[in-house]
Amino acid sequence: MALQRVRRRRRASITSLIDVIFLLLLFFMLSSTFSRFSEVSVSGLNQVSKGSGGASDTAILSVEVRSDSLVVDGDVVDDRALRSTLERRVSELGGVNVRVDDLVNTQRLIDILLLLNGFEGLKINLVDVV
Amino acid sequence: MKKARRKADRDPVISLINIVFLILIFFMVTGTLTNSDRDGVSFIQTTDLECCQDGSALVITNDGTLRYAGLVLPSVDAFLTARDGLETTTRVLPDSELPAIELLSIIKELRAAGVQDILVVTENAPS
């Protein structure tokens, strides 16, 4: 009789094991994320104030970012046109002056900055609005 | 007879545990733990960027509130005093709907305070 009791005690704990594993499983399912992060460096950007840009300087391309379009040197264009303009003129350009209007969100700004970052040696100036 | 029946009862339980263990290990290995600072922030989406290590970042929500290490901060100066002085780079995590002007003014303030290496954290969308 005594021997049998000891055996029973050893066998027991499978249900509590499952409980603990389920608990761990739930914890990891709820607290983990699968999204991958990346970073955009803004260290290379110059921030200049409004007057100092020098609008008459032809070597500087002026880009005004709007929420649905771009104004490049006074012409309203889309993103693809900016890319092709830059591809044509990148060798002669000294830099790009980027200006944002009030309605532009960060997503849009980063999209444009990444587009400009694709051209090596292009100097990007961010013009302050205020 | 009794023994045989017990074995038959226990088998499905063991295979259940095996599967649950498998799922558990899958989640432990593939997932990274979320940072509660980032609750309610919609990330800027980018594609084709090389990913890098994840660190603590200055979170800017879409109404311009600054959050860092679980605290709401009143100003950029408060962030500079609160953060670890050993870090050489400063990560900024703006909401994708935050007006770009506000992000630029915060970056300007950070620069004025002597911070050189500023990174904007984005989410790499699967391309």
Concise description?
The complex is a heterodimer of chains A (130) and B (127). Chain A is an alpha/beta fold and 130 residues long.
Total strand count of chain A, please?
A: 8
Strand order of the largest sheet of chain B: 2-7-6-3-4-5
Output mean pLDDT of chain B. Answer: 79
Q: Any idea what the radius of gyration of chain A is?
A: 30 Å
Q: Which H/E pattern describes the elements of chain B?
A: HEEEEEHEHE
Proportion of beta-strand residues of chain A: 25-35%
Termini separation of chain A comes to 90 Å
> How far is it from the N-terminal to the C-terminal residue of chain B, by CA?
59 Å
Query: What is the typical, i.e. mean, pLDDT of chain A?
Result: 78
Which features does this protein show?
heterodimer; A: 130 residues; alpha/beta; six-stranded mixed sheet; 4 helices; 8 strands; elongated; B: 127 residues; 7 strands; 39% helix; 21% strand
What would you say this structure looks like, in words?
The complex is a heterodimer of chains A (130) and B (127). Chain A contains four helices and eight strands. With 130 residues, chain A is an alpha/beta fold. Chain A has a six-stranded mixed beta sheet with strand order 3-8-7-4-5-6. The longest helix of chain B has 29 residues, at 2-30. The mean pLDDT of chain B is 79. Chain B is of the alpha/beta class. The A-B interface holds A 14, 17-18, 21-22, 24-25, 28-29, 31-43, 47, 65, 100, 102-110, 114, 126, 128-130 and B 10, 13, 16-17, 20-21, 23-24, 27-28, 30-34, 43-46, 49-52, 54, 91, 94-101, 103-105, 107-108, 111, 116-124. Strand 2 (36-41) of chain A pairs antiparallel with strand 7 of chain B, so a sheet runs across the interface.
